[in-house]
Amino acid sequence: MEAKTLLLEQWASCLDKEEWFPPLEKVLEDITFEQAMWKPADGEMNSIWELVCHLLFYEKRYLMRFLGETENEPQAENNKSTFRLPTETLENWEETKQEYFYVHRELEKTLARSEHEDMYRQVPGEDYPLVIEMKSLAMHGAYHIGQIVLLSKLQGAWARKHSS
């Protein structure tokens, strides 16, 4: 199987294609504002919304770098600050989700349009070519989707329609 085809499959499974783990779009569809803000009592875990902000930060930054729009890429002092929330309103929660879905799909389109040489060119500001960065971003997404599912389960918000 060609690397591009494999990456497109991985990328889709992180957002909207049901595989062996639930895609983020499906996981978030029934999450309320209150559930998105919730954290376990020990305070050691990020909230669902913070995790979505973190995913959005890295995907948006990579998209901007790949498109050569580094002046528009998001900035952060450190990794911890990538979990920072905008003003905590229902509207901003909905906007965060929609922006994440949009950026994820734009990266998918970028990957789908890429020629072989694009897949292996070094992107400014990144250590590896597109093929490796997209693989890493997909794995990063799957990891955090698992955390989001766990947070949902801890709240009793995991719908019975989900098999796991």
Automatic annotation (TrEMBL):
<feature type="domain" description="DinB-like">
    <location>
        <begin position="24"/>
        <end position="145"/>
    </location>
</feature>
<dbReference type="InterPro" id="IPR034660">
    <property type="entry name" value="DinB/YfiT-like"/>
</dbReference>
<protein>
    <submittedName>
        <fullName>DinB family protein</fullName>
    </submittedName>
</protein>
<dbReference type="Pfam" id="PF12867">
    <property type="entry name" value="DinB_2"/>
</dbReference>
<dbReference type="InterPro" id="IPR024775">
    <property type="entry name" value="DinB-like"/>
</dbReference>
